Amino acid sequence: MKAVITVVGSDRVGILAMIANACAKYDVNVLDVSQTIVDGIFTMTMITDCSKVKDFGSFASFMEKLGQENSLIVRVMNQNIFDAMHTV
Fold first, then answer.
1. 22 partner at 20 to 30 Å CA-CA among 29, 37, 56, 65?
2. Alpha carbon distance 82, 45 (integer Å)
3. pLDDT of 3-48, one tens digit each?
4. Domains of the chain, first to last
5. Measuring CA to CA, which residue among 23, 27, 28 is closest to residue 2?
């Protein structure tokens, strides 16, 4: 299963590394990543392979909590749901 991870917050060193390391703890493979910084605001979108994640809900909760602890907004969504939300 693929998932979309989005991250938004004030730019600082190490955000990408922190999120990638957290993914690695759950054996999540990052397939694609796009990030940009606009006027000090960091935004990142990752497409990930979560096929080895045993409990997707726990992974999503862990990532969102990690975001809160670091003053970031982190969202994790099954790509099928993401695609359905953006299909007319």
1. 37
2. 12
3. 999 999 999 999 999 999 999 999 999 999 999 999 999 999 999 9
4. 2-77 (3.30.70.260)
5. 28
3-state class of 37 per DSSP? strand
> For the chain, how many residues are written?
88
Closest CA to 26 of 64, 48, 52, 65: 52
The C-alpha atoms of residue 22 and residue 7 are separated, in whole angstroms, by 13
CA dihedral 30, 63, 74, 41 (to 10 degrees): -80
Is the pLDDT reported for residue 83 higher than 70?
Answer: no
- Is the pTM higher than 0.85? The answer reads yes
Handedness of CA 80, 84, 86, 88 (dihedral sign): positive
